[in-house]
Amino acid sequence: MDLSAIDPITLFVGLVSAATPLLFAAIGELVVEKSGVLNLGVEGMMIIGAVCGFAAATTAGSSAVGFVAGAAGGAALALLFGVMTQYFLTNQVATGLALTLFGLGLAALIGQPFTGIKPPPFHGLDIPVLSDLPVLGRMFFRYDIVLYLGVGLIALVWVFLNRTRTGLILRAVGENHDAAHSLGYPVVKIRLAAIAFGGACAGVGGSYLSLVRVPQWTEGMTAGTGWIALAIVVFAAWKPWRILLGAWLFGGVTILQLNLQASGFLSWLQSLGIPMQAQYLSMTPYLVTILVLVVISADRTRAALNAPGCLGRSFTQSG
Amino acid sequence: MLRLEPRTSASPLVEAITPVGAVIATMVAGGCLFALLGKNPFEAIHMIFVAPLLDPYSRSEMLIKATPLVLIALGLSFGFRAGVWNIGAEGQYVMGGLAGSAVALAFWNVEGAWLLPLMVLAGMAGGCLWAMIPAVLKVRFNANEILVSLMLVYVAGLFLSAMVSGPLKDPQGFNFPQSRLFHDSARLPVLLEGSRVHVGVLVALAAVVLAQVLLHRHMFGFNVRLLGQAPRAAAFSGVNANRLTVICLALSGSLAGLAGIFEVAGPIGQLQPSLPVGYGFTAIIVAFLGRLSPIGILLAGLVMALTYIGGETAQFALGIPKAAISVFQGMLLFFLLAADLLTRYRIARIRRGVV
Amino acid sequence: MSVLLDLDGITKTYPGVKANDDVSFSIEIGEIHALLGENGAGKSTLVKMIYGLARPDAGAMHLGGVAYAPHGPVAARAAGVAMVFQHFSLFEALTVAENIELGMENAPPRRELAQRIREVSAEYGLPLEPDRLIGDLSVGIRQRVEIVRCLLQSPRLLIMDEPTSVLTPQEVEQLFATLTKLRAEGVSILYISHKLDEIRQLCDRATILRGGKVVATCIPAQETARSMAGMMIGQELAQPSVRDFSPGEVLLELEGLSLPAAGQFGVALHGIGFRLRAGEILGIGGVAGNGQDEFLLALSGERRVEPRMIRLAGRPIGGRGPEVRRGAGLLTAPEERLGHAAAPAMTLAENALLTGRRRAGLTQGGFLRSGAIGAFARRIIADFDVRTPGIETLARALSGGNLQKFVIGREVLQAPSVLVVNQPTWGVDAHAAAQIRGALQALADGGAGVIVISQDLDELMEISDTFAVLANGRMSPVRPATGLDIETIGRMMGGAFGAADAEFSHASA
């Protein structure tokens, strides 16, 4: 086995990049859940974002256009969920599932003409001095702009939720929609806005996959990322800065197992008489998700502490 | 101005009509979609919804497709009614197929009437055990069953891939990732000469009847409905929510596993990495389309199978992309959920307040 | 004095009900005006329209001489109308300051707001700590938050919906002092209640609603509680006959019943012990949120305790679930009718099965006996005068009083040896309430033990043989209900039963 092929700095750079789609999707879903809505359609919104972003970027020849289109696509699909759950009062779990199934199908349909092409290149920044620093330059200052925006978004969401009146109102709506209504706050409108924001974030996350991470369009390319994003929100106990931690943790697991596969770890195991197939390494992100969910949820009082009071409940105006 | 009023009593008529309405709305919206793709919408709709019914072979294929959908959806419906969201049926289906196949392959050189029942039992056990993971984690550690069961779909898919390219690979298969072909006593008997219709169809029908009795005539069904509609009233009544959660997941896991082994031992005849084709997810749509009632699920399973068969024909004849069919199915679920509003509320006209 | 708010011909119809029918009256500046009526008389609807949460179908309102038609609470608050809700519009997971900010249009920056909260709350004798989480506060303190939230906006009209139903007598005194001070400052108060004594004590004028119509306007100080009750109810209530109380053998025995709090904001029970005898009605008073719900859950079996903590006829059953306890004869009826005592979206027949399965023989080998279920449901409906089209009606379609009769009837008809009910007549009209009390008394006369948990002291005094109080999850010693005065009860409700006991045992010695 050649573990020296695994360079810690490359590993770190890889995990930060791999975490970005998760980070966008999870911070968006956090805002949605803080408003009291459970949108299980993150996977669907991400893949729509991935395909819209890819289609727009290759057509226009610009990654920026791609990200905007990805956000718009994600938000549009999210609003479908919003209209269904807020006006037609459908069950949020079922509607979220429907959104994912629908999104996966629609993305495959839209993406058909785009398979096999390459998106326009999207380079990292070249910041004078900082990017040239030894080690630190590579670790922190050579990413693309969207990645920095993602980290900045976490801080912005924290400020929004904890330091602004609108953020307070959004939390109030998620906590107790009846009380918020009786104080005169437009529960449905606030939730729709949160849902659209969540969709846009998931869309950007999806675009990052198809434009930067992979970079190409393949059917079903999100492969559960949206679901892992949902798990990260639980892991983060609805606290923005912990989303960063969660996304990096999962990014790390993904990158580590990919690097292990590449490093000849498996053939080394084989030489020791332990037959191990690559598939088992590929399982690790999913298994880690389950493990993390169990650890976080087991402490019931703490898990419930930050969960919005009205999460997943439909609001109907009475009287 | 219109407003919504909660219904004071359930309206069976509306409940029966709304799924039909949803299907019609899907046809219209789907027609628009096909027109957008530059296809003749009427031809496409006819090909998907009508043509398969006119052809005997397509009709028999419909039964084959409907069987796993109905079996899985029946199991899911109990959980969905109780508020237990097992959405990992696809994984349980795979593990059922895998476990049953493992038995078949262990006895690849032994024939006997006992083999098929043993495979079926193993298949159900495989699906059930796979569903026990989210069940136990939910009950013991409060972990969300939606996420856990879904993560396990990916794990099951990878496990299947590891198995067919490893321990269960056909030794004479030129290194293709698939198992040996099952011999005759490991295959489901065919019911209709010249078709692929197998005994699984009858089992699915029997399951519908059993589920109907269980749901409406037995305390278990009552407790499931109660737990889903009013969890606190269920606790007051004495329903043990944890036990019911475990039972619901066991039930849906077993039925998904059963569907899995039926699929391997029926139409396919060997273990392949392409076993998961999304039945576990489509069954979610079937369960809702059937209003979570067994008879409804039977009809919904047939309709959904129809779109599969018709969709395949349309794919070849009209060049409609395969993905269009899943868009179609997703739309169906949306329309159905939206139409559900009418079963819970009725629309009343009110005068605008004079102020 | 001049008029602040004038209502003219206000009418509001909901499907099937005329909630307000041509309601006209006016509130003067610096007046405490009572709005009096039974549950369902239309008080809540009227107040919702004044606060902008509903719009009248007909009629006009004027505030300070200007036409007033608020589009929503925001507009109402901007016009100087503030409201303290009966079911608070507070957010448990947010702090006092955040809650207050949410109720204000132009909240100052957070630090300044915290300072103003401290000032205003101290000025009106309602001290508050701005950084506490609402969920950690008692019900009485929560009401302070609501009131301070209103006061910070210097309202012209303050609406208070049943403010004293959640307060101890001492807290009521404090509230009245605050309201009197506000009146002196020129604030008008619309005071909604059905408690006649406090209206006589506090209010300048009263408007009485019955069936959605104004039936009388009066000056409470010049009326008796009895005369106002007559206007409110429209008929004299038959007083229940005084029962002979001769207790039999011990049916239910609680010993050191303790239960940890469920969740962050729950109440824990500590060492509750008493004996309930055959033929006894034990009334348990106390302010809401002092462990009543938890106490009922412990008795119903929804939460398990150690077996010896609850003994039924000598048999330890603390560790058993609801089904076993019902089988043994211990039946319960929780406070919340929809969603706890009954499943809203299920039919009455199915709701009969909810608890009647074992004692009424509604299943056989796990299979439902639909004939027996229907017969049992019909018997409840007939015997307890439940007004409904039939057994296939959904529970949520019944009025509160009818559903409560169904719930109580369902338990009473199963011939319990012990029945525990929480708030049996809450939100129920006077006629139905009298029927329910009668049924409970008849049950006790037949040799059962009955525990009535209620926040309505008048009700408890009327039907109880013995009396105790829950405060902070502890229970006072049980004492005979006769001869208790309001002051002693008030002290008990404040949790000071140590002292009250000494006094009591001293007096009886």
Total count of domains of chain B: 1
Largest interface: A-B, 48 and 48 residues
- Broad shape of chain C: globular
> How many extended strands of chain C?
23
Uncertain ranges of chain C:
236-240, 499-509
What top-tier CATH class of chain B fits best? Mainly Alpha
Radius of gyration of chain B: 22 Å
Q: What labels would you give this structure?
A:
heterotrimer; A: 319 residues; mainly alpha; ABC transporter involved in vitamin B12 uptake, BtuC; 14 helices; 71% helix; 0% strand; B: 355 residues; two-stranded antiparallel ribbon; 13 helices; 2 strands; 3% strand
Describe the protein in words.
The complex is a heterotrimer of chains A (about 325), B (about 350) and C (about 500). Chain A is globular. The N and C termini of chain A lie far apart (about 70 Å). In chain A, α1 (about 10-35) packs antiparallel against α9 (about 185-215) and α1 packs antiparallel against α11. The longest helix of chain A has 27 residues, at about 10-35. By secondary structure, chain A is mainly α. In chain A, about 70% of the residues lie in helices and about 0% in strands. By secondary structure, chain B is mostly helical. Chain B is built from 13 helices and two strands, in the order βαααααααααααααβ. In chain B, α1 (about 10-35) packs across α2 (about 40-55) and α3 packs parallel to α7 (about 200-215). Chain B is globular, with a radius of gyration of 22 Å. Chain C folds into two domains: about 5-235, P-loop containing nucleotide triphosphate hydrolases (Rossmann fold, 3-Layer(aba) Sandwich), CATH 3.40.50; about 250-509, Rossmann fold. Chains in contact: A-B, A-C, B-C. Chains A and C meet through α7, α8 and α14 of A and α2 and α3 of C.
